[in-house]
Backbone:
């Protein structure tokens, strides 16, 4: 049984692989996108667009970058927690993103246990939200 479904958005295949490995080992089902454009398509697909419990998103990516993708996720799916995972941390960006509703700001390389802890906290907060609005 899966602990939840997580969407990883990062243009670096090695990072996606590392994150996927850590999260699947912890019991999560993982979906991947290599940029914001693919992530938006992934989250919109299917009959029920809200089908992830958390999103782990890089900032600097081609096509649709992380800031644009996060803005879309926060506007269209505000109950889905977003965790930033970046190789180029910026305090001003972090402050802005926290004000826009991200739940965590992690820096690459991230320790697997720190990543899993952040995802666990985020996914649990999404479960709480879903429980509050079930019919």
Residues:
């Amino acid at each position: 049984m899966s602990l939840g479904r997580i969407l990883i958005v990062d243009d670096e295949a090695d990072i996606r692989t590392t994150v996927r490995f850590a999260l699947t080992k912890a019991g999560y089902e993982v979906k991947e996108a290599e940029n914001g454009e693919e992530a938006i398509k992934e989250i919109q697909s299917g009959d029920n667009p809200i089908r992830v419990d958390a999103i782990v998103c890089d900032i600097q990516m081609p096509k649709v970058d992380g800031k644009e993708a996060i803005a879309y996720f926060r506007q269209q799916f505000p109950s889905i927690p977003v965790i930033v995972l970046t190789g180029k941390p910026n305090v001003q960006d972090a402050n802005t993103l926290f004000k826009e509703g991200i739940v965590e700001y992690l820096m690459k390389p991230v320790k697997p246990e720190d990543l899993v802890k952040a995802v666990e906290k985020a996914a649990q907060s999404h479960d709480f939200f879903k429980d509050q609005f079930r019919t």
Remarks:
- The chain has a mean pLDDT of 88.
- Residues 84 and 105 are 5 Å apart (CA to CA).
- The chain has five helices and five strands.
- The two ends are 23 Å apart (CA to CA).
